[in-house]
Specification:
Elements: E1 4-15, H1 22-37, E2 47-50, H2 61-64, E3 71-74, H3 80-93, E4 99-107, H4 124-128, H5 134-149, H6 153-167, H7 181-186, E5 189-191, E6 194-195, E7 204-213, H8 214-220, E8 226-234, H9 255-267, E9 276-278, H10 284-293, H11 302-308, H12 324-328, H13 332-347, E10 362-369, E11 373-380
Parallel strand pairs: 2-3, 2-4, 9-10
Antiparallel strand pairs: 1-7, 4-7, 5-6, 8-11, 10-11
Helix pairs in contact: 3-13, 6-10
Length: about 375
Amino acid sequence: MSDVFIVGIGIHPFGRTDGLMGLQQGAHAARVALADAGVDWRDMQFGFGGSDAAGNADSIVNELGLTGLPFINVKNGCATGGSALIGAWQAIASGQNDIGIAIGFDKHPRGAFNAMPAEYGLPDWYGAMGMMVTTQFFAMKLQRYMALHGISQATLGRVAEKAFANAAHADHAWRRVPVDLDTILDSPMISDPLTKYMFCSPAEGGVALILASEKKARELGKAQVRIKAAAIRTRPPGSFEVFAPSIAIERGGAPTLLASAAAFEMAGIGPDDIDVAQLQDTESGAEIMHMAENGFCADGAQEEWLAEGWSRIDGRLPVNTDGGCLACGEPIGASGLRQVYENVTQLLGRGGGRQVPGNPRTAYSHVYGAPGISGVTILER
């Protein structure tokens, strides 16, 4: 496999943008990324892209130009953006192409996501019981994890507090006002143990990344950020994931465990070698559970991590440096690519007030989607 570099990044701010379709937000992000790379749309040899609620991603050619390039639509739940990136990486790593684009965008209506049981092979009764409402499912799964590993309500609050503090320095974030811990803990309970500020919200936005072979990256003078590893995995036997209709007596593995192990093996490094990480944080408990599933701490050790501030910008391992899904919101097609956008920003030293100190050289992104699919990407400067 040949080396692949990220040579351009672009984003349309997340949140709510009245008057612009999701498709137009994705096109904006693409134009910014093309300009950042110093290339033109007609230079793209392929595209991979995803959108959950804003139409087919390949329709973006109507906005950017009808060049005839092959474009592959991707739809993998919240892992859509990460999956599009992996497809683009493979298209270049195989040696078949020299430069291409990964795009994700979305524009969700206000209110909770409204997944249908039949789309996941589930009977109607599952939805009638409320289990298709992700806030309820996440809370149920988290209650079990907290009981098994001694995670406190205060720790959930500290995850959200960190997110909003980081987002104050991220121009693309939706919620950019810091929120103190007491306000987070005392806010209305949505699904016990998760309060209003502990959940992300469906949102709008777009992200685009330009990928290139090493030869092309050097021609462009952009051979700084290399994709060291990219892996995606679905759930193994005994895992307990979103929209699972049952739970095994003895828990098996998890897609995140598999994807993380595969990525670390591919990169030839381990968790201790990572300088900054973006982890799926659909709600506060997701970040906590994913810290352990990605190998960065033991189950239950998150109590000490959050209390000591080890996952803050200046901590041992900064996590979700732009506020993650909690502060940025989640436009499903764009969210996984936002994580990689933020990691490139950090590795190039462009983070401003949220910049990780110490000249970070490695960055890790993890995305997770229903009904249990995880993608991991490791970057190196």
